[in-house]
Design goal:
327 residues; single chain; four-stranded antiparallel β-sheet; eight-stranded mixed β-sheet
């Protein structure tokens, strides 16, 4: 499924997303939440790039800023060579046919006052792709694609389980035949028994429609299953990016090593021979991140040099990028 460097679909260059903090009667800015602070990566046609990290590290903000749901503070997001940041409202609206999102919470992302037919058909109406009976037919077709009974199209979201609601959200995302979908933790709110079904569905749809995914998640084992390459994020920056096999078999950044050591393994013998890396302290505030390396306050191998210099995100091995002064 991996492509070559010549078929890059999405390219992110030095993406920054700061949220200003205001205080006082005159609303004076006193700081900013540095949610995303200089992120760069590429996503190739037809591949799945996994994006992992702790809660609050900026994963979801990165996905939303890529789709211009948040207007980036600075940086560039190229889709098929077109810079999305520069697009005005109407050209960006038209571009959204090709860019869609599957949201984390299937309970909050569906309008409770709309039937499934209206939810799935709304994108078609918004872009003038269908009307009336055409929407009925297309909605039934989309529900079948996501393994739901088309007869459910007249029902409301509260009549469905969490997994079924997420399938409705996936059907809505597919309505306009997009090329690129941001999957923002699409399985984290679901029962474990349902998570694998949703991931398998996403993989089947990717093969059928040549989709490209940014898959944001906490579950490292699930990311390994679905992703071609994996980016590891910490406090607004990407610290490591590699193919899934390289990353899981040869993690180079101390933070990646700590994350992978925490994955439960159902093998008592493995636990006797492998030492788990336990990180000390809490994640620093994105309002006032540490100087130099963001990870240095929790890193077991950091020294004074790590506080003075911000590590460059560079290629250590072929297609294996790391931001660490010690690697």
């Amino acid at each position: 499924m991996n492509g070559t460097n010549n078929d890059v679909l999405v390219r992110v260059e030095d993406l920054v997303m700061h949220f200003p903090i205001y205080r006082g009667v005159i609303r004076r800015q006193v700081g900013a939440v540095r949610a995303v602070d200089g992120v760069s990566f590429e996503i190739r046609q037809g591949e799945t790039l996994g994006l992992v990290g702790e809660s609050g590290c900026g994963k979801s903000t990165t996905g939303r800023a890529m789709l211009q749901l948040y207007k980036p503070t600075s940086g560039r997001v190229y889709f098929q060579g077109q810079d999305l940041v520069e697009l005005r409202s109407e050209p960006m609206r038209l571009m959204r046919r090709h860019l869609q999102m599957i949201f984390q919470d299937p309970y909050a992302s569906l309008n409770p006052r709309m039937t499934v037919r209206d939810i799935v058909g709304e994108p078609l109406m918004a872009f003038g792709q269908a009307s009336g009976k055409e929407i009925d037919a297309r909605a039934a077709e989309l529900l079948e694609l996501v393994k739901l009974n088309p007869d459910f199209s007249g029902r409301y979201p509260h009549e469905f389980s969490g997994g079924q609601r997420q399938r409705i959200g996936i059907a809505r995302a597919l309505a306009l035949n997009p090329s690129f979908i941001v999957c923002d933790e699409p399985i984290s709110a679901l029962d474990v028994s349902i998570q694998a079904q949703i991931v398998n569905l996403l993989e089947d749809l990717q093969k059928e429609f040549q989709l490209t995914y940014l898959f944001i998640a906490h579950d490292l084992s699930m990311v390994r299953h679905i992703s071609d390459r994996v980016a590891v994020m910490y406090l607004g920056v990407i610290v490591e990016l590699a193919s899934r096999n390289d990353l899981y078999h040869n993690p180079l950044h101390p933070y990646t090593q700590a994350l992978l050591s925490a994955i439960p393994v159902p093998d008592p013998a493995w636990g006797e021979t492998h030492q788990r890396t336990v990180l000390q302290g809490d994640v620093p505030s994105p309002v006032n991140p540490p100087s130099g390396c963001r990870f240095r306050t929790r890193c077991p191998i950091a020294d004074s040099h790590c506080a003075e210099e911000r590590p460059v995100f560079r290629e250590i091995e072929p297609d294996h990028y790391v931001a660490c002064l010690k690697v």
